Amino acid sequence: MIGLFQENGPCRVDANGNAINNPYAWNNASNMIFIDQPAQVGFSYSTPTPGYIPDATSGEIVVLNSTSCPSDNITQGTCGTYSTPELKPNSTAAAAPAFWATLQGFMGAFPQYSRETFHFSTESYGGHYGPVFNEYIEGQNAKNIPGAHNISLETVLIGNGWYNPLIQVFPGNTYDYSPYNATTAELLYNNLYGAGNCVDQLIECANTGSNVICSAADNYCAHNVEEIYDIVLNRDEYDIRELAPDPFPPGFYVAYLNTATVQNAIGAYVNYTEFSAAVGNAFNTTGDDGREDGTIEDMRELLEQGITVMMLGGQAVSLEVSQPGFDKAGYVNVTTSDGVVHGQVKQSGAFSFVRIYESGHEVPFYQPLISLEIFERAIAGRDIATGCVDVDSGYMTSGPAESTYREGNFTIQFSVVNTTATYNVTTGEPNPPSKEGRFAKRQPDQAQFGKVLKPVKL
User: Fold this and answer.
1) Could you tell me where the Basic and acidic residues compositional bias lies (predicted)?
2) Which of 233, 275, 250 is nearest to 360 (CA)?
3) In contact, 243 and 416? CB cutoff 8 Å
4) Geometric angle at alpha carbon 175, from 171 and 176, rounded to 5°
5) How far apart are CA 266 and CA 261, in angstroms?
């Protein structure tokens, strides 16, 4: 539902709770199916049960043993019907079979779509889901299971994926903005590289595969490295340009999905929540978030099986995929219909890495036009740079080995943006642009923000 209403679906929801048209919706180019998974995430459920959420921070659902609900939670509007908080699945690998079964059910119910090729798009934790789920799908296809539908997978698209914490946990940005003072930078460095700290724990997790060790490592890195963005900086870790609370992308769709009119229209069985504490806790027991567990290897396998793979974000990971010729390819600008350079691509054969400028985590919200156009090119088997070339194994972009463009700190905000503000995809700032943000960036006493905290490579 996040992707559907905040990014690439046909509608967005405005501050007044109205559904409005998204001209850059991906259903301009393809039929789309949005899947809330694993069970208990979003509108998906195992067993519907009455309940309420007493603490919005944790999101824990308390099951009601009667039909009555605490009066304070009636006021907060959290009383409703939720999925029973069962603790499974507890890892990416464990969730893959249910995802495959869901597609089987859909194709059985709607045979008119089972003849079509399948393109898988995901983001964020999709760095785990995309490679693992689709390699599982390919494995199931190879078994020729009687009665099962063959899922004709052609493309896997992963936006800002989380693949391997040992590669991705290190801080850095291309906005020429150093958010830390010396004391915080030293603390962060020690939390990362100090004896027995984040990196050491992640290495031990990778070496042992122990659920206990991996869970402890993931929790340590989350609390002592990632959360420094939130606790010390009060900045959004998903878009360092914005102070918390960050209104982008707006969350108005959550209330919209919990209206009686919408729920009756779509036949919803449970109330909608953006986060499932039950699933988060279950995955935490195995430390799934702190593992690489074949995500990069599975991308390599998909490419060898003739699947197109496009990575949007995650440059260091793209180098680990080891696609033939990728180390010799170079960066070129991505040409789009508006004539503006929104990013660059490095591509070898069916594998491409795309870097998008001036964007937060959910790229189709911040840069919708280039997102739609590279989606169209990828699923059509065309080159990502222009969309004019049919890609074969010998295709390779020719350009500099590194993407050196620096966004600068022009779009970084130094005051909290109003919760009802709209985002200007042309300027990359709140609409209208924040006077405080722009003026602050032009003042001489802000010169310290021109420094860059460079990540240290292992």
Assistant:
1) 435-444
2) 250
3) yes
4) 90
5) 9
The burial of 289, by beta-carbon neighbours within 10 Å (0-12 exposed, 13-18 middle, 19 or more buried), is given as: buried
Residue 444 has pLDDT above 50, yes or no: no
Instruction: Name the residue among 408, 410, 409, 415 with its Cα closest to residue 436.
Output: 415
pLDDT, tens digit, 9 for 90 and up, residues 183-229? 999 999 999 999 999 999 999 999 999 999 999 999 999 999 999 88
User: Rg of the chain over CA atoms, in angstroms?
Assistant: 22
Condensed to tens digits (0 to 9), the pLDDT of residues 113-166 reads 877 899 999 999 999 999 999 999 999 999 999 999 999 999 999 999 999 999
Q: Name the amino acid, one letter, at 343.
A: G
Burial of residue 120 (number of CB atoms within 10 Å: 0-12, 13-18, 19+): buried
DSSP H or E stretch at residue 343? strand 343-348
d(CA 162, CA 168) in angstroms, rounded, equals 8
From the list 277, 352, 356, the residue with the least C-alpha distance to 7 is 356
